[in-house]
Amino acid sequence: MTDFLKTPLNGIVPPLVTPLLDNETLDVKSLERLINHLIKGGVHGLFVLGTTGEEQSLSYKVREDMIRESCRINAGRLPILVCITDTSIVESIHLANVAAECGADGLVSAPPYYFATGQPELAQFYEELVPQLPLPVFLYNMPSHVKVSFAPETVARLAKMKQVVGLKDSSANATYFQSVMYAVRKVNPKFAMLCGPEEMTGELVLMGANGGVNGGANMFPELYVAMYNAAKARDIDRLISLQQTIMQISMSIYTVGRHGSSYLKGLKCACQQLGIIDNDFVASPFYKFDQPERDKITLALAKLKLNVRQS
Protein backbone atom coordinates (compact mmCIF):
# COMPACT_ATOMS: atom_id res chain seq x y z
CA MET A 1 0.00 0.00 0.00
CA THR A 2 1.30 3.45 -0.93
CA ASP A 3 2.29 5.59 2.06
CA PHE A 4 1.11 9.09 1.15
CA LEU A 5 2.14 10.25 4.61
CA LYS A 6 5.78 9.94 3.51
CA THR A 7 5.70 10.34 -0.28
CA PRO A 8 3.40 12.75 -2.18
CA LEU A 9 1.30 11.41 -5.03
CA ASN A 10 2.68 12.57 -8.38
CA GLY A 11 1.61 12.16 -12.00
CA ILE A 12 -1.62 11.49 -13.89
CA VAL A 13 -4.39 9.97 -11.77
CA PRO A 14 -7.43 9.49 -14.03
CA PRO A 15 -10.89 9.89 -12.51
CA LEU A 16 -12.43 6.67 -13.75
CA VAL A 17 -15.72 6.71 -15.59
CA THR A 18 -18.09 4.25 -13.92
CA PRO A 19 -19.21 1.68 -16.54
CA LEU A 20 -22.86 0.81 -15.97
CA LEU A 21 -25.38 -1.62 -17.43
CA ASP A 22 -28.25 0.25 -15.77
CA ASN A 23 -28.85 2.37 -12.67
CA GLU A 24 -28.37 -0.63 -10.39
CA THR A 25 -25.65 -2.65 -12.09
CA LEU A 26 -21.91 -2.07 -12.50
CA ASP A 27 -20.43 -3.33 -15.79
CA VAL A 28 -17.53 -5.28 -14.32
CA LYS A 29 -16.17 -6.54 -17.66
CA SER A 30 -15.88 -2.99 -18.97
CA LEU A 31 -14.33 -1.81 -15.71
CA GLU A 32 -11.64 -4.47 -16.03
CA ARG A 33 -10.91 -3.40 -19.60
CA LEU A 34 -10.78 0.26 -18.56
CA ILE A 35 -8.38 -0.26 -15.66
CA ASN A 36 -6.05 -2.44 -17.71
CA HIS A 37 -6.14 0.17 -20.51
CA LEU A 38 -5.14 2.90 -18.04
CA ILE A 39 -2.35 0.85 -16.46
CA LYS A 40 -0.99 -0.06 -19.90
CA GLY A 41 -1.09 3.65 -20.74
CA GLY A 42 1.33 4.44 -17.93
CA VAL A 43 -0.86 6.40 -15.51
CA HIS A 44 0.35 6.88 -11.95
CA GLY A 45 -2.81 6.11 -9.96
CA LEU A 46 -6.57 5.62 -10.17
CA PHE A 47 -9.32 7.83 -8.74
CA VAL A 48 -12.64 6.07 -8.15
CA LEU A 49 -16.08 7.71 -7.72
CA GLY A 50 -15.17 11.29 -8.50
CA THR A 51 -17.29 13.71 -10.51
CA THR A 52 -16.36 11.85 -13.70
CA GLY A 53 -17.34 8.64 -11.90
CA GLU A 54 -20.88 9.97 -11.23
CA GLU A 55 -20.63 9.26 -7.50
CA GLN A 56 -23.57 11.41 -6.46
CA SER A 57 -25.89 9.70 -8.96
CA LEU A 58 -25.01 6.19 -7.81
CA SER A 59 -26.65 4.09 -5.13
CA TYR A 60 -24.51 3.17 -2.15
CA LYS A 61 -24.55 -0.43 -3.37
CA VAL A 62 -23.11 0.53 -6.76
CA ARG A 63 -20.53 2.79 -5.08
CA GLU A 64 -19.40 -0.11 -2.90
CA ASP A 65 -19.34 -2.44 -5.92
CA MET A 66 -17.17 0.09 -7.78
CA ILE A 67 -14.74 0.32 -4.88
CA ARG A 68 -14.48 -3.45 -4.42
CA GLU A 69 -14.17 -4.33 -8.08
CA SER A 70 -11.68 -1.55 -8.84
CA CYS A 71 -9.42 -2.66 -5.99
CA ARG A 72 -9.73 -6.32 -7.01
CA ILE A 73 -8.91 -5.64 -10.67
CA ASN A 74 -6.06 -3.27 -9.85
CA ALA A 75 -4.57 -5.86 -7.49
CA GLY A 76 -2.11 -3.42 -5.99
CA ARG A 77 -0.55 -2.35 -9.30
CA LEU A 78 -1.28 1.35 -8.78
CA PRO A 79 -2.37 3.49 -5.83
CA ILE A 80 -6.15 3.89 -5.67
CA LEU A 81 -7.99 6.92 -4.31
CA VAL A 82 -11.68 6.63 -3.41
CA CYS A 83 -14.05 9.58 -3.20
CA ILE A 84 -16.25 9.56 -0.08
CA THR A 85 -18.11 12.85 -0.57
CA ASP A 86 -21.60 12.80 0.91
CA THR A 87 -24.05 15.02 2.74
CA SER A 88 -23.89 12.57 5.66
CA ILE A 89 -20.70 12.21 7.68
CA VAL A 90 -21.85 8.70 8.66
CA GLU A 91 -22.05 7.59 5.02
CA SER A 92 -18.66 9.16 4.24
CA ILE A 93 -17.08 7.19 7.08
CA HIS A 94 -18.81 4.01 5.91
CA LEU A 95 -17.48 4.37 2.35
CA ALA A 96 -14.02 5.11 3.76
CA ASN A 97 -14.10 1.89 5.76
CA VAL A 98 -15.17 -0.08 2.68
CA ALA A 99 -12.28 1.47 0.76
CA ALA A 100 -9.78 0.53 3.47
CA GLU A 101 -11.11 -3.02 3.70
CA CYS A 102 -10.69 -3.42 -0.07
CA GLY A 103 -7.11 -2.19 -0.08
CA ALA A 104 -7.44 1.40 -1.33
CA ASP A 105 -4.57 3.76 -0.59
CA GLY A 106 -6.30 7.08 0.04
CA LEU A 107 -9.58 8.95 0.25
CA VAL A 108 -10.88 12.09 -1.44
CA SER A 109 -13.52 14.34 0.09
CA ALA A 110 -15.33 17.40 -1.23
CA PRO A 111 -17.36 19.56 1.17
CA PRO A 112 -20.88 18.42 2.01
CA TYR A 113 -23.33 20.02 -0.39
CA TYR A 114 -26.91 21.38 -0.15
CA PHE A 115 -26.50 23.72 2.85
CA ALA A 116 -23.40 25.79 2.10
CA THR A 117 -20.90 25.86 4.95
CA GLY A 118 -18.88 28.84 6.08
CA GLN A 119 -15.11 28.45 6.29
CA PRO A 120 -15.05 27.92 10.09
CA GLU A 121 -17.80 25.29 9.75
CA LEU A 122 -15.94 23.63 6.89
CA ALA A 123 -12.71 23.41 8.88
CA GLN A 124 -14.56 22.07 11.92
CA PHE A 125 -16.30 19.44 9.78
CA TYR A 126 -12.98 18.06 8.53
CA GLU A 127 -11.44 18.26 11.97
CA GLU A 128 -14.29 15.96 13.07
CA LEU A 129 -14.29 13.72 9.99
CA VAL A 130 -10.60 13.10 9.34
CA PRO A 131 -9.68 11.45 12.69
CA GLN A 132 -12.46 8.91 12.05
CA LEU A 133 -11.08 7.86 8.67
CA PRO A 134 -8.77 4.86 8.18
CA LEU A 135 -6.69 6.27 5.29
CA PRO A 136 -4.89 9.47 4.24
CA VAL A 137 -7.21 12.15 2.84
CA PHE A 138 -7.08 14.45 -0.16
CA LEU A 139 -9.36 17.46 0.02
CA TYR A 140 -11.42 18.02 -3.12
CA ASN A 141 -12.18 21.58 -4.20
CA MET A 142 -15.19 21.53 -6.54
CA PRO A 143 -17.03 24.84 -6.01
CA SER A 144 -19.15 24.63 -9.17
CA HIS A 145 -20.88 21.50 -7.84
CA VAL A 146 -20.86 21.86 -4.04
CA LYS A 147 -21.22 25.67 -3.80
CA VAL A 148 -18.29 25.99 -1.38
CA SER A 149 -14.60 26.56 -2.07
CA PHE A 150 -11.82 25.76 0.39
CA ALA A 151 -10.21 29.11 1.23
CA PRO A 152 -6.40 28.91 1.05
CA GLU A 153 -6.16 29.56 4.79
CA THR A 154 -8.64 26.72 5.43
CA VAL A 155 -6.52 24.31 3.39
CA ALA A 156 -3.43 25.46 5.30
CA ARG A 157 -5.24 24.91 8.61
CA LEU A 158 -6.30 21.39 7.62
CA ALA A 159 -2.88 20.56 6.16
CA LYS A 160 -1.50 20.71 9.70
CA MET A 161 -3.36 17.43 10.29
CA LYS A 162 -0.97 14.58 9.49
CA GLN A 163 -3.67 12.59 7.70
CA VAL A 164 -4.56 15.39 5.24
CA VAL A 165 -2.00 14.87 2.47
CA GLY A 166 -3.19 16.81 -0.57
CA LEU A 167 -5.77 18.80 -2.52
CA LYS A 168 -7.45 17.99 -5.81
CA ASP A 169 -8.58 21.33 -7.25
CA SER A 170 -11.26 21.52 -9.95
CA SER A 171 -11.94 25.24 -9.67
CA ALA A 172 -10.23 25.99 -13.03
CA ASN A 173 -8.79 29.05 -11.30
CA ALA A 174 -5.01 29.20 -11.65
CA THR A 175 -4.69 32.13 -9.26
CA TYR A 176 -6.56 30.18 -6.58
CA PHE A 177 -4.40 27.11 -7.21
CA GLN A 178 -1.20 29.11 -6.84
CA SER A 179 -2.52 30.82 -3.70
CA VAL A 180 -3.30 27.50 -2.05
CA MET A 181 0.03 26.01 -3.07
CA TYR A 182 1.87 29.04 -1.66
CA ALA A 183 -0.03 28.94 1.64
CA VAL A 184 -0.04 25.22 2.24
CA ARG A 185 3.57 24.39 1.46
CA LYS A 186 4.69 26.69 4.24
CA VAL A 187 2.84 24.32 6.56
CA ASN A 188 3.57 21.00 4.81
CA PRO A 189 6.18 20.92 2.00
CA LYS A 190 5.06 17.41 0.99
CA PHE A 191 1.41 18.42 0.53
CA ALA A 192 0.29 17.18 -2.92
CA MET A 193 -1.41 19.62 -5.28
CA LEU A 194 -3.39 17.93 -8.07
CA CYS A 195 -5.12 19.79 -10.90
CA GLY A 196 -8.51 18.65 -12.18
CA PRO A 197 -8.96 20.54 -15.48
CA GLU A 198 -6.73 18.98 -18.11
CA GLU A 199 -6.70 22.23 -20.05
CA MET A 200 -4.38 23.78 -17.45
CA THR A 201 -2.59 20.81 -15.86
CA GLY A 202 0.60 21.17 -17.91
CA GLU A 203 1.20 24.79 -17.00
CA LEU A 204 0.48 24.16 -13.32
CA VAL A 205 2.90 21.22 -13.22
CA LEU A 206 5.50 23.63 -14.61
CA MET A 207 4.72 25.86 -11.61
CA GLY A 208 5.06 23.10 -9.05
CA ALA A 209 1.82 21.07 -9.09
CA ASN A 210 2.23 17.35 -8.47
CA GLY A 211 0.03 16.20 -11.33
CA GLY A 212 -3.43 16.00 -12.77
CA VAL A 213 -6.72 14.18 -12.25
CA ASN A 214 -7.70 14.39 -15.91
CA GLY A 215 -10.85 12.79 -17.32
CA GLY A 216 -9.48 12.59 -20.85
CA ALA A 217 -6.95 10.02 -19.69
CA ASN A 218 -9.80 7.49 -19.70
CA MET A 219 -9.59 7.68 -23.49
CA PHE A 220 -5.92 8.44 -24.18
CA PRO A 221 -3.79 7.77 -21.08
CA GLU A 222 -0.52 7.94 -23.03
CA LEU A 223 -1.30 11.48 -24.16
CA TYR A 224 -1.82 12.82 -20.65
CA VAL A 225 1.18 10.95 -19.25
CA ALA A 226 3.29 12.44 -22.07
CA MET A 227 1.96 15.90 -21.19
CA TYR A 228 2.90 15.42 -17.54
CA ASN A 229 6.35 14.10 -18.44
CA ALA A 230 6.99 17.02 -20.79
CA ALA A 231 5.99 19.51 -18.09
CA LYS A 232 8.19 17.81 -15.48
CA ALA A 233 11.10 17.83 -17.92
CA ARG A 234 10.37 21.45 -18.86
CA ASP A 235 10.25 20.43 -22.51
CA ILE A 236 8.18 23.43 -23.54
CA ASP A 237 8.02 22.68 -27.27
CA ARG A 238 6.70 19.17 -26.67
CA LEU A 239 4.30 20.41 -24.02
CA ILE A 240 2.86 23.01 -26.39
CA SER A 241 2.38 20.36 -29.09
CA LEU A 242 0.62 17.95 -26.72
CA GLN A 243 -1.49 20.78 -25.32
CA GLN A 244 -2.94 21.39 -28.78
CA THR A 245 -4.32 17.85 -28.85
CA ILE A 246 -5.64 18.14 -25.30
CA MET A 247 -7.43 21.35 -26.22
CA GLN A 248 -8.88 19.70 -29.32
CA ILE A 249 -10.34 16.99 -27.08
CA SER A 250 -11.75 19.63 -24.75
CA MET A 251 -13.30 21.71 -27.51
CA SER A 252 -14.81 18.82 -29.44
CA ILE A 253 -15.70 15.79 -27.32
CA TYR A 254 -16.66 17.75 -24.19
CA THR A 255 -18.78 20.38 -25.96
CA VAL A 256 -21.23 18.16 -27.84
CA GLY A 257 -24.70 18.84 -26.44
CA ARG A 258 -26.18 21.86 -24.72
CA HIS A 259 -26.14 21.04 -21.02
CA GLY A 260 -23.73 20.81 -18.11
CA SER A 261 -23.69 17.04 -18.46
CA SER A 262 -22.12 17.26 -21.94
CA TYR A 263 -18.61 16.55 -20.61
CA LEU A 264 -19.69 13.31 -18.97
CA LYS A 265 -21.87 12.15 -21.87
CA GLY A 266 -19.17 12.98 -24.40
CA LEU A 267 -16.44 11.21 -22.44
CA LYS A 268 -18.48 8.06 -21.89
CA CYS A 269 -19.66 8.00 -25.50
CA ALA A 270 -16.07 8.35 -26.72
CA CYS A 271 -14.89 5.56 -24.41
CA GLN A 272 -17.61 3.31 -25.80
CA GLN A 273 -16.74 4.13 -29.39
CA LEU A 274 -13.06 3.46 -28.69
CA GLY A 275 -13.97 0.01 -27.34
CA ILE A 276 -12.79 0.79 -23.81
CA ILE A 277 -16.26 0.23 -22.30
CA ASP A 278 -19.21 -1.65 -23.80
CA ASN A 279 -22.02 0.71 -22.85
CA ASP A 280 -22.10 4.47 -22.35
CA PHE A 281 -25.11 4.35 -20.03
CA VAL A 282 -25.19 7.46 -17.84
CA ALA A 283 -26.80 7.26 -14.41
CA SER A 284 -30.09 9.08 -13.88
CA PRO A 285 -31.03 11.90 -13.97
CA PHE A 286 -28.94 12.00 -17.15
CA TYR A 287 -29.12 10.00 -20.38
CA LYS A 288 -26.59 8.98 -22.98
CA PHE A 289 -26.38 10.80 -26.30
CA ASP A 290 -28.83 10.23 -29.14
CA GLN A 291 -27.56 9.42 -32.62
CA PRO A 292 -26.91 13.00 -33.84
CA GLU A 293 -24.60 13.65 -30.88
CA ARG A 294 -22.99 10.23 -31.23
CA ASP A 295 -22.14 11.03 -34.84
CA LYS A 296 -20.38 14.21 -33.72
CA ILE A 297 -18.29 12.20 -31.24
CA THR A 298 -17.39 9.75 -34.02
CA LEU A 299 -16.21 12.62 -36.20
CA ALA A 300 -14.25 14.23 -33.36
CA LEU A 301 -12.46 10.96 -32.61
CA ALA A 302 -11.61 10.41 -36.27
CA LYS A 303 -9.87 13.78 -36.34
CA LEU A 304 -8.15 13.23 -33.01
CA LYS A 305 -6.54 9.92 -33.89
CA LEU A 306 -4.28 11.59 -36.41
CA ASN A 307 -3.22 14.22 -33.90
CA VAL A 308 -2.58 11.67 -31.16
CA ARG A 309 -0.38 9.61 -33.49
CA GLN A 310 1.54 12.71 -34.47
CA SER A 311 2.14 13.41 -30.77
Topology (elements, then pairings):
Blueprint: E1 11-12, E2 20-22, E3 25-26, H1 28-40, E4 46-48, H2 60-74, E5 80-83, H3 89-102, E6 106-109, H4 119-129, E7 137-141, H5 143-146, H6 152-158, E8 164-169, H7 174-184, E9 192-195, H8 198-206, E10 211-212, H9 221-232, H10 236-252, H11 262-273, H12 291-310
Parallel strand pairs: 1-10, 4-5, 5-6, 6-7, 7-8, 8-9, 9-10
Antiparallel strand pairs: 2-3
Structure description:
The protein is an alpha/beta fold. It is 47% helix and 11% strand. The protein has an eight-stranded parallel sheet with strand order 1-10-9-8-7-6-5-4. Helix 3 links the parallel strand 5 (80-83) and strand 6 (106-109). Helix 10 (236-252) runs antiparallel to helix 12. It is globular. The two termini are 34 Å apart. Mean pLDDT is 95; it is low at 307-311.
Please state roughly what percent of the residues sit in beta strands, choosing from under 5%, 5-15%, 15-25%, 25-35%, 35-45% or over 45%: 5-15%
Q: Count of helices?
A: 12
Give the overall average pLDDT: 95
The count of DSSP E runs of length 2 or more, i.e. the number of strands, is 10
Strand order of the largest sheet: 1-10-9-8-7-6-5-4
Let me know the largest β-sheet.
Answer: 8 strands, parallel
Q: Find the structural class using helix and strand composition.
A: alpha/beta
Instruction: List the uncertain runs.
Output: 307-311
Q: Could you give the order of the helices and strands? A: EEEHEHEHEHEHHEHEHEHHHH
* C-alpha end-to-end distance: 34 Å
Outline type: globular
Helix content: 40-55%
Global Rg: 18 Å
